[in-house]
Amino acid sequence: MTRKILVVTHGGRQEAVAGLREAVPALCAAGFEVVLHDHDLAAEMGTASFVLDEARSMLDGTELVMVLGGDGTILRAAEITHGTQVPLLGVNLGHVGFLAESEREKLTETVQRLADNDYVVEERGVLDVRTYLPGQSEPVHDWALNEATIEKAERTLMIEVAIEVDGRPLSSFGCDGVVMATATGSTAHAFSAGGPVIWPDVDAKLLVPLSAHALFARPLVVGPGSMFAVEVATRSGAVGVLIADGRRRTPVPVGSRVEVRTGATPLRFARLNQAPFTDRLVSKFNLPVVGWRGLADEAADEVAAATRPHGSAADADPRETTTTTGTTATTGTTATTGTTPQTSQTR
Prior knowledge:
The chain has 347 residues and is an alpha+beta fold. The protein is built from 7 helices and 22 strands.
């Protein structure tokens, strides 16, 4: 049985096209039927193609959607797979690439792992977003993998909003906007706005005000059963815009109400690396961890201390030992210098 893969990339980027020219022959050689979203590239490489806006009709019988690009391209591909059982696998050709699972230099290895079925599928929660506009009885329905953001539509004016949690009013203030994010999105826009990093296995939602003119305007974290609501207050001198994952925009005039809940159907990702999320943070943000010894070294020190003979020199109070170097005395070691080879003993 032929295994089918849809490949989505940024056809306008030379690096993406170069990656595609490497990936497609490797996938075909591994026995996959490859379908591309770019007609010109598909014709060049002799594969089938699809229109991105109609791609969901191509998912029948598809094992996986491979994305060659950065987080923006992955969010674009997520619009294809949302609400389905087909997983995404991102190969990072961008900068941080937090949603990607592999890097450009490991593309050949990635294809082989797919051919060997050597991957697992992980589910990530999404947001269900409903916008109630003045004079309309039915809401505008949207969703987000990373975040839904209400922003001011005019640069020179703040937007006045009222915040509600689980049907109860919490606060109101003027601001540049409000970010409501998933755990996945906590490392995106919400992170830049000063929100906390939420580990992906924590089923939570996050709200972060943007440049709020208020004393109580701190990030909020709630559970999966809770609902955020943001209303554009009638006193607001500016209208807003709702932006889902930086891609889909809905105007929110004065009197609008946006409700954000946990989505019913998570998004699926193919994972090749089961390393802890902490390691991903360190890698993606290039965090400094030089000097960390870890629990293994601490445990070794404890074992050494427990097995050391009582009364040994290493058990002596370091304040009671001295170092003689000419006429200078220091504490903590015993050593002699000069023509005699130096020896030292430290605890």
